[in-house]
Amino acid sequence: MADDRAKIAEFEKAVADFTGAKEGVAVNSGTAALHAAMFAIGIEPGDEVIVPTMTFAATANCVLYQDAKPVLVDVLPESLLIDPAAVEAAITPHTKAIIGVDYAGHPCNLGALRQIADRHGLILVEDACHSLGAEYSGKKIGRIADLTCFSFHPVKHITTGEGGMTLTHRPEFAERMRRFRNHGISSDQRQRTEQGTWFYEMVDLGFNYRITDFQCALGMSQLAKLPGWLQRRRSIAGIYDAELASLPYVTPLRKDSDILHAYHLYVVKIDFSRLGRSRKEVFLKLRSQGIGVNVHYIPVHLHPYYQQKLGYRRGSFPVAEAVYEQILSLPMYATLKDEEIARVMDRLKEITQTV
Ligand SMILES: *Cc1c(COP(=O)(O)O)cnc(C)c1O
Q1: Per-residue pLDDT at 226
Q2: Which of 211 and 195 is assigned the larger pLDDT?
Q3: Strand ranges in the chain using DSSP code E only, listed in sequence order
Q4: pLDDT band for position 107 (50/70/90)?
Q5: What is the tens place of the pLDDT at every residue in 17-41?
Q6: Which long-range contacts (C-beta less than 8 Å, at least 24 apart) are formed by 199-203?
Q7: pLDDT (tens digit per residue) in 249-290
Q8: What is the reported pLDDT for 189?
Q9: Contacts by residues 73-76 (CB-CB < 8 Å, ≥ 24 positions apart)
Q10: Strand partners, 135
Q11: Does ligand 1 have an atom closer than 6 angstroms to the CB of 170?
Q12: Residue partners of 316: CB distance under 8 A and separation at least 6
């Protein structure tokens, strides 16, 4: 019991070192990492935070947790990444931050977003739950945005069971997040033991977002395997890219030349109307053949909660809505075997070539 948090600090340092970030604050989910980021930058009622609608709901929910307003914006049709022009158009005097999402593992346009953020005095937050190990302009994701949030849920690149981490180069943000994950209390158990005192103060309204030592021990062993897993994901994507080039109705998402992709997902767009089959038909057929296809994501503004409580309507974001009808995620994980990749391609070819 002498130092029960040693593994947490070790894991935080290891992830920070891996990405080149100064500080990492580990919490018990990616959602908590996003919430901690919103807290650290002082998001409060009346504030607005710009979020792309093509993401997992947690990216926008973290703004609601602070009683502030997530302002959803549309995405680019070829990459499904946040559209910088839409961000610029959504800025008001209440805007405090932008959350870019590295959809599928492709870094969002951090250069353009940084310029917009600097011009308007906004904080740039990155939801990098898909992009651990990705790079933008030769720099690892984690050291570019003001705050970068990762998830260690079992479907992500590395797992701690449940878990997450926010990286930052600003020590004051890290300090606020360390308090936030521990009820807003100003010193933790270890500090109190070291100081031999019972005294503590709650200075913020925090949460219990603590991750455990044994989860971080798992995280350390996972992190050691990450480079090999990333390499495998990239080679699977290379095979998919090459095979899909000859398929008429199937197009992979665009990949920019100045990035290194982390391939959390491999998403294709299928022109179902020209193919003459519905997505549901293709989806169910592939599933019945044991091919684990999926759809990521239903745009946030189409969820009942966002329509009923925030007044979003179908039709608000035409690009995301149109692309949503076309997307399908193909199996993508490091342990996928060559024979399985070949089978995915054979079944996909079958159903997209015969009409
Ligand atoms: C997984 C994920 C989250 C949430 O992470 P949890 O660890 O499940 O809370 C947030 N945003 C995106 C884009 C994700 O993929």
Answers
A1: 98
A2: 211
A3: 23-27, 48-52, 69-73, 95-101, 123-127, 135-136, 139-140, 147-151, 164-168, 250-252, 259-260, 266-270, 327-330
A4: very high
A5: 999 999 999 999 999 999 999 999 9
A6: 203/179
A7: 999 999 999 999 999 999 999 999 999 999 999 999 999 999
A8: 66
A9: 73/317, 74/317, 74/318, 74/319, 74/320, 75/103, 75/317, 75/319, 75/320, 75/323, 76/319
A10: 140, 260
A11: no
A12: 53, 72, 301
Structure tokens at 326: 């076309």
Longest distance between any two alpha carbons in the chain, whole Å: 75
Structural tokens at position 191: 């500090």
Q: Is 153 in the pocket of ligand 1 (CB under 6 A)?
A: yes
52 CB less than 6 Å from ligand 1?
no
Tell me which residue has its CA closest to atom 14 in ligand 1: 129
Cβ burial, residue 318 (10 Å; 0-12/13-18/19+): exposed
Of ligand 1's listed atoms, the one at least distance from the Cα of 103 is 13
Nearest CA to ligand 1 atom 3: 30
Strand partners, 101: 127
Contacts of 195 (CB under 8 A, 6+ apart): 187
Residue 15 has pLDDT above 90, yes or no: yes
Report how far ligand 1's centroid is from the alpha carbon of 59 (Å). Answer: 7
E strand segments, 132-183:
135-136, 139-140, 147-151, 164-168
